[in-house]
User: Which sequence fits this backbone?
């Protein structure tokens, strides 16, 4: 009989989790500040903050819950405008580069290198320079931090694995559209009046805001779909099997 692994799914910001919580009902654990699945108590979700800045809380969760599989869910920025990948495509990752510490974490199966940066990149020249300097195809702000924290945790064992479920959230040629993306954070939770106020003052006007929201919706919907498929396969199969990609063992 297969035993369900203890799974902790980690996202950077709340909006990367909202659609998934609609598919997998959860209850909020106020003590550890995470969402616990009602149907599978071995499954939890944690919002780690942009750049994974809630690291103290994450370390406590690792110590107390001792998950055996950590899933890193999130949108990534595409660096090469020549790539055929589109918004919503999942990327198979072979390596994660911590740009701040020049540490490379090997994993796979996959073909892409993900560079973890300390701040969002929007300008085309910033993405191009990162691509050339690091030989990376995508970037985020959380993956390397998560791998380091899991690897350093005394609660983690040699069998603890991290699986990256990363979906393209933006392409380089759309940089101008995403430059003001922070103004739309938490859009679904805002009132109609708040949304109207943002639309009226949004740089470029309401039409540009609508295009941005539609692009974000595609990326977030795809992330929720890929995340749900991955998590349900992990629960059904007792953990990652030969089918899994973008698997890392940080210990």
Assistant:
């Amino acid at each position: 009989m297969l035993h369900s692994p203890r799974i902790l799914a980690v996202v950077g910001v709340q909006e990367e989790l909202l659609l998934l919580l609609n598919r997998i009902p959860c209850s909020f654990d106020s003590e550890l500040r995470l969402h616990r699945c009602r149907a599978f108590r071995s499954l939890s979700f944690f919002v780690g903050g942009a750049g994974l800045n809630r690291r103290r809380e994450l370390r406590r969760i690792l110590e107390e819950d001792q998950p055996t599989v950590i899933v890193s869910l999130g949108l990534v920025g595409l660096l090469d405008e020549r790539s055929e990948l589109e918004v919503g495509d999942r990327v198979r990752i072979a390596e994660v580069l911590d740009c701040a510490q020049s540490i490379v974490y090997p994993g796979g199966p996959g073909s892409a290198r993900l560079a973890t940066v300390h701040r969002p990149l929007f300008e085309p020249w910033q993405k191009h320079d990162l691509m050339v300097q690091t030989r990376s195809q995508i970037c985020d702000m959380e993956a390397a931090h998560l791998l380091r924290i899991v690897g350093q945790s005394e609660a983690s064992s040699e069998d603890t694995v991290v699986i990256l479920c990363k979906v393209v959230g933006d392409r380089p040629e759309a940089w101008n559209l995403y430059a003001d993306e922070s103004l739309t954070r938490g859009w679904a939770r805002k009132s109609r009046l708040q949304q109207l106020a943002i639309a009226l003052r949004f740089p470029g006007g309401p039409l540009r805001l609508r295009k941005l929201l539609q692009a974000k919706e595609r990326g977030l919907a795809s992330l929720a779909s890929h995340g749900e498929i991955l998590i349900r396969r992990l629960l059904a199969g007792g953990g990652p099997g030969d089918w899994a990609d973008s698997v890392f063992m940080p210990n």
